[in-house]
Amino acid sequence: MSGSEHVVDFAHIATIFRHLGLSLDPAECHGCLCGLLCATDAVQGAAWVNQVLAGKLGLPEPGAAPHQNGAEGEERTALLILYKETAGQLDDPNYGFSPLLPDDEQPLRQRVEALSRWCQGYLLGLGLGGVQEQSGLSGESHEVMRDFVEISRLGHGEDGENEEDEAAFAEIVEYVRMAVLLVYEELRPLRAARPPGAPVH
């Protein structure tokens, strides 16, 4: 469930952001994208890449002019691959989705903080995509959203790491992974039934 399972991994995206001088966090950015893709069918890959290169999170305007920001073709392509990979994973019948996080070789503190930011981004993406608190979602999905709020507040106060901490973190990541797929499936008919950007009621 680490970023290493992605064709374009966390470290690659972080390098792109640093090179372009973007203040965006890769985990939060990916979480926001996933929330948007769960909430609405209005997110187009090229427009999302333009939004990211402009240093913004949120629902991009259709047909927005490309934002260069010094980006080279390879960097733009990497972000577009991330978009396509993420959309494909959410639709994968084999549950191939995973959040974009630092790989398992990184300190646990860093991975916990990244997961916290990922969940913050996901909740932001849902809201920007039109999913409101009173959205007609099932009790299970409401519970997911409450849990994500709690995960977004996670911290890792100790410098030491042990097998129990690693196991607990792996369980939380797995929960996040499957919870996103649950919400994505539940919102599928709602995405199809409403105009892009309209609130879910």
Verbal overview:
This protein is mainly α. The protein has a single domain (3-193), classed as YgfB uncharacterised protein family PF03695 (Four Helix Bundle (Hemerythrin (Met), subunit A), Up-down Bundle), CATH 1.20.120.740. The protein has 7 helices and no strands. It starts with 9 loop residues before the first helix and ends in an 8-residue tail after the last helix. The model is unreliable at 1-5 (pLDDT under 50).
Task: Name some characteristics of this structure.
201 residues, single chain, mainly alpha, Four Helix Bundle (Hemerythrin (Met), subunit A)
Question: How would you summarize what this structure contains?
Answer:
The protein is mostly helical. The chain has one domain: Up-down Bundle (Four Helix Bundle (Hemerythrin (Met), subunit A)).
Topology at a glance:
Layout lengths: L9 H11 L5 H14 L5 H9 L19 H18 L17 H21 L10 H13 L11 H31 L8
